[in-house]
Amino acid sequence: MDLNIIAKEKKIKSVWVLGSTSKVAQSICVELARNGCERFYFLSRNKIKSKEFSKYLKLKYDVFVEEKFIDLEKVEFLEKQKYFSVSDFDLYLITAGYLGDNELAKRNYSEAKRIIDVNFTSIIPWINAITIKERLNKKMALWIFTSVAADRGKPSNYFYGAAKSGLKVFSEGLISRCSNKKFSVRVIHAGYMDTPMTSGKAPRILCINTSKVAKMLLRRPFKRGIEYMPWFWNPIMILIRILPNKIISKL
């Protein structure tokens, strides 16, 4: 399917990204730029990586890029500064996340709080700012990346899984809220992808290239609901959810 036709029909000409230095976000942005997206708005913490990627997009595709730098650990400060204001974009993309150190989080409150804040608490004000009542009657899309870790708590990553589970349940409610609106909400339960976050932590055979993820998602940019990416994580997680605890405790 020709993504140029899709971008033209669906008018994906602008995108807002929270977590723009993640590999999957950058793959999606490159695919969008290749197919006619003209305006990009990036929010991230890593200034160096963000500026490098913005420069690449501008030079390669002659697009407009605006950047802001934030720290999702400091949600209270952002609230006080009335930072959570968002203008209209065709696509809103949320890929921000932090795997964290599960062992450290058991004994260190700051690490535990950081995992919860970056993956859940600090994301909610942005989603609220995006999904204002006036915007729900417009043809726009919101993609929220969660994780298959949200489906079942495991000893190896239950702080991360708990945070992503909170985001998952919140997003499910948002899907229902927008079910009869023009505004579409899409929740992507991501399995292992070929990213720095999963490097050395996952079998390569289960890791999917982020460029493939971008292409698959952009085939239907206004698709609604929950989906596993890649698809085979759905049956895998059905099995994981029914495994007895004595097996899960070894994972």
Shape: globular
Order of helices and strands: HEHEHEHEHHHEHEHEHH
SS element count, helices: 11
The tally of domains stands at: 1
Keywords:
251 residues, 44% helix, alpha/beta, disordered N terminus, Rossmann fold, globular
What does this structure look like?
The chain is α/β, with parallel strands linked by helices. Helix content is about 45%, strand content about 15%. It is built from eleven helices and seven strands. The model is unreliable at about 1-10 (pLDDT under 50). The longest helix has 20 residues, at about 160-175. It has a seven-stranded parallel β-sheet, sandwiched between helices. It has one domain: NAD(P)-binding Rossmann-like Domain (Rossmann fold, 3-Layer(aba) Sandwich), CATH 3.40.50.
Q: What would you say about this model in short?
A:
The protein has about 250 residues and is α/β, with parallel strands linked by helices. The chain contains eleven helices and seven strands.
Q: Topology of this structure?
A:
Layout: H1 3-10, E1 14-18, H2 23-34, E2 39-44, H3 47-61, E3 64-69, H4 75-80, E4 91-94, H5 102-107, H6 109-121, H7 124-130, E5 141-147, H8 158-177, E6 184-190, H9 210-218, E7 225-229, H10 233-242, H11 245-248
Parallel strand pairs: 1-2, 1-4, 2-3, 4-5, 5-6, 6-7
Helix pairs in contact: 2-9, 6-8
